[in-house]
Fold this sequence. Notes:
Elements: H1 5-18, H2 24-41
Amino acid sequence: MAISVGTITQDVRDYAQAHRIENIEIAVEAGMQEKAREFRQEGANIYKEV
């Protein structure tokens, strides 16, 4: 699966809209904080066995 800048940009816009965040920079920061929490809760492992 290829991920493009356009895809990421749209994902950020969708996240902002879903969380009712008008400022994209704030949406990016909130999303990064959310993903960081998930990463730590899942054990902070970079590689996962499949």
